[in-house]
Amino acid sequence: MGSATSKQGGEGGGDGSGADVQKNDGKAVYDVYGRRIDSEAEGNESKCPVDHAKYRALGGLDPRNQMPKEPNQQPAPGQRVPLSVSRSWSTIPKSGTDGTWLYPSPQMFFNALQRKGKAEGVEEGDMDSVVYVHNTMNEATWQEVQRWEAMHKDTCGEPKLQRFRGRPDDLTPRARFWKLLGYEPPFDRHDWYVDRCGEVVRYVIDFYFDESKAGSPDAFLLDVRPGLDSIRNTMDRIRMTMQEAAGSLQGNTEENQPVPATQTEAPGRAQMQAAKPSSCPMSSQSRVN
Question: In 3D, which of 106, 68, 74, 70 has the Cα closest to residue 87?
């Protein structure tokens, strides 16, 4: 879908689709801004020299996603390998239309990184993987949004994404709290604005990367919730917390039931992982599978 939009601040006054990608050799992990987010990235400063003249030459920016209105599918200066210009349709409904959001092609993604000065260390051969993970994380984010929106299905049966904004340098209050406790901060943050049949609701998304699980789908975690912009959003968060607590209690009760010997099996990966301490505070949140 591209990059981002809109205005507003922290979790209670502005509180995420970002995605990161692991290179096939497992040596480096990038976010969608072309920045390293693995251990070797420590100390690297993010840069964002926006060339507004280039944006104007491309017809300006679409305020819904901060991407050029006229997609640039031409090879970037100095590009060594041709990239696909094929684009994929998402399953995410687009507000104001009967269709869904359209994801950028590998060439568009590469050009976007070049425009923003964030392509250092990113190779053409990485782009298919970058776009795949970007799209996968967007789809997972929308699934989480739908889980929240289900609480309002009686008043709006078809919520749609109106716009979104990437805010990788703005920690949400929750992320800041976890960081104070010694956990790694999220590598990205987005604000998604959802059209709930005429009412615009802001969602906050923190994207985490657990390096101890690098190379597996469990390395990418999402923390999706409505921003604390209204009493209704606050009540939704309380309701969801209570529902999850009740579900967890019921699950624990069922797990404590006797299991016939013929059904006993060795602990699976999930149980083994649960026994290990995690450096990621969102280890129990939604994973990107």
Answer: 106
